What does this fold into?
Amino acid sequence: MPAAPQFAISDLVRELRAIVGPDGVLASESELLAYECDGYTLQRNPPTAVVLPRTTEQVVAVVNLCRRENLPIIPRGAGTSLSGGVLAVDGGVMITLTRMNRLLHLDVRNRRVLVEAGCVNAWVTREASPFGLCYAPDPSSQPACTIGGNIATNSGGPHTLKHGVTTNHVLGFEIVLPDGQVHWLGATPDGCEDVEGYDLRGAAIGCEGMFGIVTRALLRLTPAAVAHKTFLGVFDTVDEASQTVSDIIAAGIVPGALEMMDQLITRALEEAYHFGFPLDAGALLIIELDGLPDGIAAQSTVIEAICHRNGAREVRVAKDDAERAALWKCRKRAFGAIGRLSPNYVTQDGVVPRSQLPVIMRFIRETSERCGLRIPNVFHAGDGNIHPLILYDERDPGQVQRALAAGHDILDKCIELGGSVTGEHGIGVEKIDFMAKQFSTDDLDAMRTLRRVFDPEQRCNPHKMFPGSKRCADFAPRKQAAA
Amino acid sequence: MRLRPPNLEELRHALATANARGVPVTGWDLHALNTLIAHRPEDMTATVETGMPLAQLQQALARQNQWLPLDPPFPTKTTIGALLAGNHSGPRRFGFGTVRDWLIGIRVVLADGKIVKAGGQVVKNVAGFDLCKLFVGSHGTLGIIVEATFKLLPQPQAECFLQRTCVTLQEAAALLEQIWKSSLQPSVLDLHRLPNAPLTLVVGLSGPTEDVTAQRATLATLGVRDETNLSYDAVFHTLPSRKLTVAPSAVISTLEQLGATSFVARAGNGVIAHASGVATPANLPSPVLQQRVKDAFDPKHTFPSL
It folds into this structure.
């Protein structure tokens, strides 16, 4: 496994500059500050240097340099990940792809698009929409997060319930392996979606940057929905809203999105964005149907009936595209509104079978009472993918410990209920300890076997995912930018 | 050596023994492992042993009005294990994708007899690497999949399949382009020419009754109005055929090059099965990396080679 740099940092910087140019390397203490963590701020450590390549050839040259000097490589996109997946645990060279952000070729006829890895998620749909196409995976961070990062974490989003996650929409990609070799995995830009041999594309999606550096990707575009209908169901209790989710699925309807927000988060959102949410509601459901107009009209009647049967006090319908967009903007910026509630928060990303939603929501409520911390919830109810936001104040060390313990209890409960400790954020450094709870030693060995195929020296994004990984020396919560 | 284990424990044991002695395992029959372990309709998931034929699984799921939206040609003969190993699909692939899109968890017996799992029981899960993807389509070269968990869908409220015969490929091409550019959302978009039969375009519609009715009216304006079914796919696949895959935009030009042969083409996906003598040269990308996968998971090459 790569160790801390053996040769002078000034030499490293000089060599990196020779590869990417003088403006492509960051190495001063102040410049590196922005790269010492991602959205998971409880652990921080700066890389030895950050390099911003513009071409695949430059990435290869940087990788070869790291190999020669036995340095860790940490691939990074926009750094919006939420579990420490891009933390430079032991220093090393952080390869940041944000300058490789071009959309290279929009192939309307074949409904696919070739992009560089640093291309921002939302740009893809923006460019494709004039042709009636969209890129389906829509993580809440989509105005900032990159396609390369999406591939690394197999990102989801509110609309994955019906349309699938990143792996269902990435046809192929170019990856630079830690030995400096460049491979194209999966479908090529002019080729068929079926490729001979093992599905190395699928195996590498969600590898959390531990197999190599993705440099270009071929994405599947989906015909944009002809029509939408977006409901806001207002309920007195989380239980009623949870039951509504189950009943909609049981009725044979798979909405485009099915999201829940509890009272605490609704109040914070209303204060921040003034959408007009009812402040006294126990829970809100955003239910969005997409597809063709006739089917939507028929399913709408069923949805409204199910909501009312479960005690909905009101079912609003977004009156036009502007109102629908405003509603989604609020939902996707929910984490940003937390700053109004608390100086710090830690978000969890557990998954339970949909039918267990009422159980896990009750458990979260009990956990909140037990640990004396508020835990608002805003999450992908249709997928059973919860996002409890545990609020704490870092100035009180007792609260920090209780927040961490509460998160652990909730994730343990997700495993107990037959679920998973992460639905879309990844393991990173945050959830390493849970891997041994969710998987057996043999399961983990099989994963390690796969990793060795791509990265036998464990150079790429080391100290992640697997139990026994090294941790940051300064494991200490610091100031968190919650807004 | 072929394995026909009466249960999982015997399978583990037989495999571990063969592996230890360096005896190659050439095939296996898992018909004894054919239990539907769980169907959780409220979660829209099911866990099944892989010896069960697909048709039997579909029958069980249908009791709750659900299905695994995959339609390979011979569902009564195709076990879940074969479906996964061969990554088989059928006409509805255009609308519903392939088994990789629906598999959320597996249990596999590796060459040394160890049982490992990947994924889980929930529809969204990124804990650990996605070994499910690796094993789908691996043709039994890495391990024996003994259990699979799928996400499911409600059965479509309505389905219909409509066809129009075409005189020339150019006529079919023009029709395809019209459908491609329209707001239609077909679940099937096939072009076929069976032996001694005309060139035929097939469009499938699946979904809420109202959508199927409305789209059907639109298709009628394009002259696609004769009701049909999907039996042509199985009929064609009883004959010897070769597979050819291209980008969707290249389907018509590829068929032109094949000449007057019979074929079934997934026009929306670019997958062509044809009976012509034109062989497609093997094209295994990243062969060294592929071989490294094989060697890592099956170091003694107990399973068939890649």
Chain A touches chain B through 87 residues (CB under 8 Å). The domain at 227-337 of chain A is CATH 3.30.70.2190 (Alpha-Beta Plaits).
